[in-house]
Amino acid sequence: MHKHPPPLSYRLRPKKIDDLLGQNEARTFLHDCAKGTFQSAMLWGPPGTGKTSVASIIATLYPESFHSISAVMSGVQEIREVTRKATGEDNTPIVFIDEIHRFNRPQQDALLPFVEDGNIILIGATTENPSFAITSPLLSRMRVIVMKPLEQELIETILSHAVERDPTLRKSGKTVSLEAMGAMAKAAHGDARAALNVLELAITSIEASHIGLEELSGLMDRPLYHDRKGENHYDLISAFHKSVRASDVNASIYWLGRMLEAGEDRLFILRRMIRIASEDIGMADPNALRMATSAKDAFTFVGSPEGELALYQVSVYLACAPKSNALYLVEKTVRDLIRNTGTPGVPLALRNAPTRLMNDLGYAQGYIYAHDDPYGALDMQYMPQGLEKTKLYSPKDIGLEKRIKEFMDAREKTQGSRPGPHRRPSRK
Question: Which of 189, 193, 223, 233 could cross-link with 9 by S-S, CB 3.0 to 4.6 Å?
Fold first, then answer.
């Protein structure tokens, strides 16, 4: 059986520091490595941004000291084996761990002594935010190198170099139009490996000698990068929430679309919409909460993809609704008040008196039944002793909250207008 060559992305992997494109921070780190002054580091970025390429360049610089371990296939035992073999050698072993975020906390804790004592130089690679995926003690001893998604122009350059320099592609004799390479670069969403994979697939599977946009049809259907538990997951929902809060309709539906296209859990998005309806709109437009919960019911009933239109509908509504964070603020204010004042007793007038003993103790005495009182029992004290003058809710002059504010102001002005001593009217 004929042996296939390695993938194009592997064949074109940078072998020198200057071959690494678009990652200036990583190149600076590699120059430090070449001088022998580097330290343990964490390479963090989405797929196809060059994390493994950085490791391969280090391996070229220090072939005798470099050891590669996959967190998927290996464990701390392999680290111990590396350090055991390195005992007595002049060079400190360099240990590269791909997908290091897959190590659990005990495994990461087991790495700490090796890094802290300088027994190894640890190079980790992860697609997840190290702040969440890596333990703080280990991360604090490592230099974080951020690998950013590559610009479309850089990926186009990489594709052009591949067509010009790779012997296997040149042997095919096929040419690729600039428009086609631009489309491949754009569809890769910053992932050079994905773009190279599409290029190789196009040249090996398309019979035409010249590959243009028409020939690429169907080869570039690739889902957007999205980690449903990591930083990208939270970044997108944060961008959506902030856009709705600022009443930017276009940005709101854009970020919603980004999440939907990336496969985000629809119920996760709907839960955030329900939160927005109370946190950022509240009583300025109570219908926002009904809209959000109705969208949840509609999507649950209809499902994908038809039910996703309800998410777009409620996104537009939430973005256009009048905004007030008064309810959000009052929730925090009430919690703080309770923490600071404890649990003062309920005023006796507000307690029920179902037994003679409770009646003898003064329960319910002085209570005024508001429905029977022409003054609405406004002058009664409903807050605990010591908190009588406390004001918690401050509605804004917008939407329905403007009317609520007017009601609260009017009630405050009316208090104290009852003539004569307070008494409990008889109920018929």
Answer: 193
Distance CA 377, CA 424 (A): 9
- Beta carbons of 369 and 424 less than 8 angstroms apart: yes
Residue with tokens 């329905």, as numbered in its chain: 400
Q: Looking at the domain 23-146, which fold is it?
A: Rossmann fold (3.40.50)
Q: At the top level of CATH, which class does the domain 231-320 belong to?
A: mainly alpha
CA-to-CA dists, residue 349 to 11, 290, 345, angstroms: 83, 36, 11
Distance (Å, rounded) from C-alpha 155 to C-alpha 169?
17
CATH fold of 152-216: Helicase, Ruva Protein; domain 3 (1.10.8)
Q: Does the structure show a pLDDT above 60 at 424?
A: no
- What are the boundaries of each domain within the chain? 23-146, 152-216, 231-320, 344-414
CA 18, 20, 23, 29 dihedral sign is: negative
Strands 175-176 and 94-98: unpaired
Does the global pTM surpass 0.70?
no
CB 84 within 8 A of CB 114: no
Residue 276 predicted with pLDDT over 70 = yes
Write down the pLDDT at residue 172: 87
Rounded Cα gap, residues 12 and 196, in angstroms: 9
- The rounded distance, in Å, linking the Cα atoms of 378 and 423 is 13
In sequence order, what are the beta bridge partners of 229? none
Strands 175-176 and 210-211: parallel
Q: Is the peptide bond before 5 cis (omega within 30 degrees of 0)?
A: no
Distance set, CA 99 to CA 46, 73, 123, 265 (Å): 11, 10, 11, 24
Residue matched to tokens 């219908």? 287
